[in-house]
Amino acid sequence: MGFRAKPSARGRADRSADSTPPATERLGREHTGPDGPGAERAEASGAGEPTAAGVDAAGRGSGRGGGRFVRRLRRTLLAALVMGAVVVPVSAAARPRIPAPAPAVLAPVTASTLDKAYAANRANAAEAARMAADHGDRTRAAADRAMAAPSRRFLSFDGRGSGQAVEVVGDLAHADRVAVLVPGSDTTLETYGRFRAGALALHDRLGPRTTVVAWLGYETPGTVSTTVMTTGRAENAAPRLKGFIRELRGVVGQSAHLSLLCHSYGTVVCGRAARGLDVEDIALLGSPGTGADSAAALHTSARVWAARGADDWVANVPHTRADLFGTTIGFGTDPVSPAFGAHVFAAGGGGHSDYFTPGSVSLDNLARIVLGDTSEVTRA
């Protein structure tokens, strides 16, 4: 987690109801922010943007025969995803493990000791950059070196493996409102800059006495892998996220308003962590499903929001679950569907990568949610 603060508990009255796998080569475009991870890979491979139009056509069938056809089609699509995820990575060259120091050992962090934590994690990033450079990995060395810049503020940093980092944008010690961003698949230290761009754009939109935390606190699944279609990574990440929110509450105090903004596979993580989580709002963006059948099934007192851009390919992903080869694939009910019961808000015409684009409808609405201006949020 990178820092530990004294946990605090508080009751909260219930409020009103409140990269993820695409079905095609669009897997390579899983990302958060204006330029998310996977963009170069999709561009280099010439991957197109086909849609699962057959799902929509089948959905218009009537009667029991049409329903059976839709269910068979969904299972077929999911089976194809499993086979592709198993076969494709076998042909990819394994990447050598990059050496890096163990994370800095920190005392429990308080508002008054944040600067010491930031300094320790910058030093750790600088050492990771040196080790990566000595290893011959210039891409990772450059990413680590950027994180070691004097202006950066990390609550935790771990340069080992694909890497993890939790960064603060703004003055956390004096924040009245804090938004925590949880990314989707294929977010690593190499691609972290794009995830951070979304955090910076949101903070610019929010204004003073607000803080955005970019929480890359788990090992995200690859966009072409079996892990991106199952809850395994999310189940491992959820306790980390719950612990982080407890520790964050210990730093900012009980009066601060906390919002959790979750993108793509990150919504699966947030769905697993939601039960009893001490936050005021949870927003699900471009979600393949949370693993829960409804907002009520998340067992949270937070307001649950959901949005999907008009050009987001997640709309074509079968929002269902199926047992294939002894493994449950898929994440269930679509969070923007009436059956889920979330507050659905407008995200404009953007695609899967556009939720934090400056000037976008989605970013404006996310800012209103974080600021508590919920009556101003435009509904879909």
What does this structure look like?
The chain is an alpha/beta fold. The chain has helices at 39-45, 53-59, 63-87, 114-135, 138-147, 192-206, 232-252, 265-273, 361-371; strands at residues 154-158, 164-170, 177-182, 210-216, 257-263, 281-285, 303-307, 322-324, 327-329, 343-344. The chain starts with 38 loop residues before the first helix and ends in a 9-residue tail after the last helix. Mean pLDDT is 81; it is low at 1-63 and 82-94.
Compact overview of the structure:
By secondary structure, the protein is an alpha/beta fold. The protein is built from nine helices and ten strands. An eight-stranded mixed β-sheet has the order 1-2-4-3-5-6-7-10, sandwiched between helices.
Distance between the termini: 36 Å
Strand content: 5-15%
Number of helices: 9
Q: Which shape, going by the Cα principal axes?
A: globular
Give a short account of the largest sheet.
Answer: 8 strands, mixed
Q: Give the averaged pLDDT, no decimals.
A: 81
Strand order of the largest sheet: 1-2-4-3-5-6-7-10
Helix content: 25-40%
Q: What is the strand tally?
A: 10
Estimated structural class = alpha/beta
- Supply Rg: 20 Å
Unreliable stretches (pLDDT < 50, length at least 5) are 1-63, 82-94
What is the element string, with H for helices and E for strands?
A: HHHHHEEEHEHEHEEEEEH
